[in-house]
Amino acid sequence: MNHSVICLGRAAGQLVSTTSLQYLASQPEHRSGLLCMQSSQPLVSAQGNLLLILGTPLPAVTAVPSSWQQACTELPQREGVFAAIYWDANAEKLVICTDMLGLQPLYWKKTADHIVLSDKTTAFTGEANHAGWGAFIALGYPLGRDTLTQGVDRLEPATVSVIDGNSLEVSQTRYWHFDEQQPEADTDELVCALQASVDRTLSGCPHQQHAILLSGGYDSRLIAFLLHERKLALQATIVSHYDENLDADARFAKAVAGHLAIPYRVQTPRHDFFSSQDYLDYLTVSDAEIPSLYLFISQVGQFIDAPVVWEGLLPGKTLKASEPDFAAFQRVNIKGFEHEIWRSAELVFGHEQARAMWQAFLTRWHEEQACYPDTGNGTALFNLAHRARNRVGINPFKVYQQKAQICMPGMSRDYLQAAMSIDHAKKQHHQLYQQIFRRYFPAALQFPIAHGSTVDRMQASSLSSYLFQFALSCHNRLNQHPRMLRWLGIKPAQGFAPCRFLAPEQLLQHAGTGLNPAFLAKLAQGESLPEPALRLLFYWQNWQLLRHKPVRQWVQS
């Protein structure tokens, strides 16, 4: 398993199991503590000082700082997605620098005797964090610093933390934040900043093979045209979305790749993906921190096969409109306690624990919401700070980074400032994206765009595009009437096969702790139980299994 673990403290030597490279710093007799760095990434040392880089800082860090003060000055100057961890042997201080949005995963657990850091939550044991689990159920991802494990927090973004190796005292400084007083950027300034971020990213990996995860949507299309403009030799990976809209997503991606002369491969996921070892591997690398059953994006990681991969997470979160205010955000995104999912939670955990999860989430929701203005721009900033950062199933720096160097255009101060300064109303209905395409890449509008379950024809005017739009409309209408489909002899569109890990015998085999005994009794007796409850049990068991033994033990011989 690829991960990095750092321990600092009096009991540190007893906290880390040796599963990969372990580097033990000098341990003077006068000092009761020690530093243990364990990592699949190369550790760099100079004059006894150590440096560990996770992710891709831009420009790359080419030398080990000579002191913790120099590290505090130089590391925050980097753009990109990264976490840098530096140990000053003489001063016995640890410096941690997170990227601007904190997209590179890094977590810590602090006690009076030690501090443990890791890029995976599975390095830690602990009780369930009710706020994290409440968010998992109500929203689909943790809020703020929360994880699913009590006492394990995600480090804050754009922050330099300095830890004294003897006292374990922590001081923190925020080095960047979005400036709401800056004037609104125009489209030229925005695109200029985006292009500069692409050029900066390319300078960090100039001689490697590049691939792009290409879909039929806005995000990857913009990246493809930006890279084509730079004459980058590129190959595309297109994952078939055969269960939706006559696979419009892959169809449009192929059209874009053909227009730009980008060689591509279409990957078709297995129908039984969510009963496969590939899905269990996904759970392992994603920490199982979000609901992932039947989530299309869960299957993409298995097709990463190039040294450098471009992924379009960030532009989409900055160029598209969010909800107009937090009341709308709550209405659209949050499942209140009256929602049926909470009845399933009460079945699985019991009423008292389910209510505690909801109340803890509600407290955290109000705390985090209060940090942003109650406007469309405020909800956009909230989404960037929470959904983009914590929805780790679609964070390539949690999942895809296990196989490749990930490139994400837009991770620069200039771009973030420009994009987030543009008024919310100008981003509604993808207006800003379309304005950028019309002005800079008009050919991008020649092909329809698939986003979510919606298809927009854009400026496509060929006979084939009209025929496809008509066929799609008929297909989607007919799918709403399965009896008519059967009468016409048409096979309905099929999604993924049911997950075999939800079978009662599988779930009972790994029952776990913290569950409602009455629910387990019903499961053992073969009573019919709602699938949302079985899914919750599956997620809960994965969270426990990943901290104690390999998740692949779900697979029976």
Summarize the structure.
This protein has helices at residues 68-74, 130-138, 187-203, 218-229, 248-259, 277-286, 313-319, 326-333, 340-349, 351-369, 376-385, 387-390, 413-421, 431-440, 463-479, 482-488, 504-509, 517-524, 531-545; strands at residues 4-9, 21-24, 34-39, 44-46, 49-58, 79-88, 93-98, 107-110, 114-118, 152-154, 159-164, 170-174, 210-213, 234-239, 264-267, 308-310, 405-407, 449-451, 454-456.
Characterize the structure shown.
With 557 residues, this protein is of the alpha+beta class. Helices cover 35% and strands 17% of the residues. It has 19 helices and 19 strands. It has helices spanning 68-74, 130-138, 187-203, 218-229, 248-259, 277-286, 313-319, 326-333, 340-349, 351-369, 376-385, 387-390, 413-421, 431-440, 463-479, 482-488, 504-509, 517-524, 531-545; strands spanning 4-9, 21-24, 34-39, 44-46, 49-58, 79-88, 93-98, 107-110, 114-118, 152-154, 159-164, 170-174, 210-213, 234-239, 264-267, 308-310, 405-407, 449-451, 454-456. A six-stranded antiparallel beta sheet has the order 2-3-1-9-8-10, with no helix packed on it. A six-stranded antiparallel beta sheet has the order 4-5-6-7-11-12. Strands 15-14-13-16-17 form a five-stranded parallel beta sheet, with helices on one face. Strand 11 (159-164) and strand 12 (170-174) form a beta hairpin. Helix 2 (130-138) packs across helix 10, helix 3 (187-203) packs antiparallel against helix 13 (413-421) and helix 9 packs across helix 10. The longest helix has 19 residues, at 351-369. The two termini are 22 Å apart. The relative contact order is 0.12. Mean pLDDT is 87; it is low at 11-34 and 550-557.
